[in-house]
Design brief:
By secondary structure, this protein is an alpha/beta fold. Helices cover 47% and strands 13% of the residues.
């Protein structure tokens, strides 16, 4: 039994923008698999207005999705993820201040995990407060480990 199934409380997880985008653009990959865990209610996913705005901006500009398609994607996210407004400012990342907004979301919900593909700034941190920072493949591996509790 994996930790998600054995826990009375669902894992609290924040997805970085790049995980959401990868899941939307490239179905079938690790990012899509972690998103499916959120859709199926196996984990509780939290997003902030900043994360949603970044997703909207990148889908509209870089991928040139029509506004209606972007709005549908955002509405779908909000059907299974919880939107939170971080209240504490975070300054842990100096090289990319936008990443501090992601960490602020983690702090606001006391996330167990931040799932990200950001190899430059976020993944090297390894953790922030009580939040483990890992990529989608590592997250999926951790969820399939046997439960060590008796």
């Amino acid at each position: 039994m994996n930790p998600v199934q054995s826990s009375a409380r669902k894992l609290r997880v924040v997805f970085d923008t790049n995980v959401i985008l990868s899941g939307l653009i490239r179905p079938g990959g690790n990012e899509d698999a972690v998103i499916q865990l959120g859709i199926e209610g196996e984990i509780q996913v939290y997003l902030s207005p900043f994360i949603l705005a970044e997703v909207e901006r990148v889908l509209s500009t870089k991928f040139q999705w029509p506004r209606s398609q972007v709005q549908r994607a955002l509405a779908n996210l909000l059907q299974w993820a919880i939107l939170v407004e971080p209240t504490q400012a975070v300054t842990a990342v100096q090289t990319d201040p936008d990443d501090n907004h992601i960490l602020g979301c983690c702090l606001a919900v006391q996330a167990n995990y931040l799932v990200t593909g950001d190899r430059r700034d976020l993944l090297p941190l390894g953790s922030f407060q009580k939040t483990r920072i890992i990529n989608a493949a590592a997250f999926l591996r951790e969820l399939t480990l046997p439960d060590p509790s008796p």
